[in-house]
Amino acid sequence: MASKQATKRLQKEYQMMGSNPPEFIQAKPLDSNILVWHYVVTGPPDSPYEGGQYHGKVIFPEEYPFKPPAIKMLTPNGRFQTDTRLCLSMSDYHPGTWNPAWSVATILTGLLSFMLEETPTTGSIKTSVQERRQLSRRSRAWNRADKRFRDVWPELCEEELPVDTPETDQENTEASTLHRRKPASKVQANGAAVAPAGNAVLVKAVGGIWSRIKSNMLVLVLGGLMTYLVVLKVLSRLGL
Which positions are catalytic? Predict the structure, then answer.
């Protein structure tokens, strides 16, 4: 159960989140437990998470604001393990660095900032930019399938889902181009290179010249033979 001080502080922060929320961030406590907050981070533009919707929880201790909360992300995102306590400077992993002046807005802004970095920590994972973009496109559908999200954020479930068009990604376009591109020559199993098209033209030309030479040689031989026969006939008539 929350202490009076924690309840008063969190109620005030809820009002502040409603009137002046941080950019890309929404958060609110459960009706049944003010110590458990659910947040939604929207992926900022020009990031691998652009347009994604990332749902998570912040679990405050009874001693808040004098002790830090536990922080989890529930939506698959490619940066953090899901439903796992994250080791951050403003989480319960580091009570020694906690500042009681930090608020829900401060905590979630710090989480988003760390999400956009690549610094490893307990609870983080390593994935490619393309994988994170794919997860971003699937995040809203994933959230709608999660009962925890539907119970806390029914208003977000009414939003129209974006059209999934993975083929428009720059990475996929480049990969497709590279796949279609053919090398100038191929290497056989014995290591010999197969001549490209330009060499084939040269070979064909040389072959044509050699064919003409052979044809001319045959004409010369036949001509010589005919001359020899004529000479023999003339000598025979002369009685030589």
Answer: 87
